[in-house]
Design a protein that fits this description.
This protein is mainly beta and about 280 residues long. It contains two helices and 23 strands. The protein folds into two domains: about 120 residues, Metal Binding Protein, Guanine Nucleotide Exchange Factor, Chain A (Beta Complex); about 130 residues, Beta Complex (Metal Binding Protein, Guanine Nucleotide Exchange Factor, Chain A), CATH 2.170.150. The protein starts with 10 loop residues before the first strand and ends in a 9-residue tail after the last helix.
């Protein structure tokens, strides 16, 4: 399935899936049981999902742990064909694996990732590094760069953050995020929440909500207390959703961007859960 030299690595199927082979050694486990062990995985992008997932040759999968799904879902994955339940140590995980209809991906099986969907395999490794939520996109770059720009953040007209020592995080496909030292943030205007999210590029984030009465989505501020080494410079700094607050950089007001998070932020309420 690997493309010939000179060919574009990313292919597109009639179903709208994009895929390319990967040279990473990937293993997936449920508890202590290794379900997938592959040195020839394939990255697959579904048209309605912004992140990739892995699919694996059947020979690299413990098919003896798979059963035809008793209650296969409808419309969960683009171009899906057959769903499987996964049984490990007496525990049955419904529709944890599936195959794609595309001829290009015939003979491959994909799996749910527990920390992304709440079901499926709970530990994943690329080489000897554990990865979380979803595979990292080889066409995506994340750079965290210290800066001396003057960044101000206002919520409902109130100045909440004012710094000349931010860290700017540039992530492909997303607006620049401004990470601000806590000393430069009005923490008295924020309330810590129990919300946490995971990112395969940055780590696990903790969140704060706006303390005032303004119509501001919950969990609008986040921080990485123990970021992954590649973005270690953002450790403990606070970032605000550009989509929901007003940010000024070097005296120039920034437009609120439209991103994959925008709709979730608009729909979330003071009583609801913020975006993942």
């Amino acid at each position: 399935m690997s493309p010939l030299p000179g060919e574009q690595s990313v292919r597109t199927t009639p179903e709208g899936l994009r895929w390319e082979p990967s040279e990473r050694w990937v293993r997936g486990r449920k508890g202590e049981v290794t379900v997938v062990d592959s040195r020839r995985p394939v990255l697959v992008w579904e048209p309605d999902l912004p992140v990739p997932q892995y699919a694996f040759p059947r020979a690299d999968v413990r098919e003896d742990l798979l059963r035809p799904a008793k209650n296969p879902p409808v419309g969960r994955h683009t171009g899906s064909r057959i769903f499987y339940d996964l049984e490990v140590d007496g525990e049955l995980l419904e529709s944890a694996a599936w195959t794609f209809l595309a001829d290009d991906l015939a003979g491959h099986i994909a799996f749910e990732w527990f920390r992304r969907s709440g079901r499926g395999l709970d530990h994943w490794y690329e080489e000897e590094e554990e990865i979380f939520i979803h595979p990292r996109d080889p066409h995506k770059r994340v750079d965290a760069i210290p800066s001396s720009r003057h960044v101000q953040v206002r919520v409902d007209g109130t100045l909440v953050a004012d710094t000349r020592r931010p860290v700017l995080l540039f992530e492909t496909g997303l607006p620049t995020r401004y990470y601000i030292p806590r000393e430069d943030v009005r923490l008295d205007l924020l309330v810590p929440t129990d919300h946490h999210t995971g990112c395969p590029y940055k780590g696990t984030a903790e969140y704060w909500s706006w303390h005032g009465e303004a119509d501001v989505p919950p969990d609008v501020v986040w921080s990485y207390p123990e970021p992954l080494p590649a973005v270690g410079v953002v450790k403990g700094l606070l970032a605000f959703y550009n989509e929901a607050v007003d940010i000024t950089v070097d005296g120039e007001a920034q437009e609120r961007p439209e991103t994959p998070f925008s709709l979730m932020l608009r729909q979330s309420s003071r009583r609801g859960r913020g975006p993942a």
